[in-house]
Amino acid sequence: MSSILFEIKDQVGYITFNRPDKLNAFNREMALDMHDALDRCEQHDVRAVYITGAGKGFCAGQDLAEVADPNGLGMNNILSKHYNPIVTRIRNLDKPVVAAVNGVAAGAGANIALCCDIVIAAQSALFIQAFSKIGLIPDSGGTFFLPRLIGWQKASALMMLGDKVTAADAERIGMVYKVFADDEFEQASINIATTLAAMPTRGLAYTKQALNRSGGNTLLEQLEGEDELQQSAASTKDFKEGINAFLEKRSPVFRGE
Ligand code: T3D
User: Per residue in 189-218, pLDDT tens?
Assistant: First the structure.
């Protein structure tokens, strides 16, 4: 059985971490399969991506048994070959990525969720910056995304103490967009992904680019960047369709072009 399940439905690419017995902890095979799934998501027929976990967990981060293996890849290689490219590929993917956090998200599993465009959590989900408990530092972009999402002080405390954050608290402090009751979670989160897949894909990609740039830009640089990206958005067929549909008082049909 593959460690990543992948299917496309209604122009959404569904990526499911699939090592449920290990709370979907990442091993080498899973990281390589994740890259294959992201390759497929780069194709034009996928207009939104949905990432979730099989079973009761989302992802418990790096498989610690693999790290302990003296014949394994080694720490340095794990980050540079597995997690860092996964994070940069998600940020650079020119379509929205939804993290549907169905259960515990720990270590790199939490931070891969947090690098996604929209993070949705089930009520029973937990977020844990588990790294400090085993003598590591937060990786997979955690030190970049978490302080930007929830502020320096809370991020610092969560990273140092490794406290568990409930989904309700994660929503309250701005770590996630929305929380849904466990029995509504799957359908509600899929609805968000299918909504995104029917929206103007290129406009959403330019929005993502603008947000990506805002991390290091001055206000002037950001304003100039918005101007440039807006001109690109305004040249899309979906923009023309949006305008026409508004003027004709009908629902738009966007094709991601
Ligand atoms: O280069 C590098 O290597 C650095 C990269 C680091 C990236 C990282 O992600 S570091 C952080 C790694 N993750 C962790 O430290 C989390 C470890 N897991 C836990 O603390 C707990 O499992 C949880 C708090 C996440 C969940 O607890 P609980 O009680 O709900 O479940 P459990 O019983 O602990 O786990 C269920 C099974 O999953 C269990 O297997 P078993 O005993 O039934 O066969 C457990 O060993 C396994 N599991 C959970 N997390 C991992 C794991 N196996 C391997 N690696 C894991 N990370």
Answer: 999 999 999 999 999 999 999 999 998 999
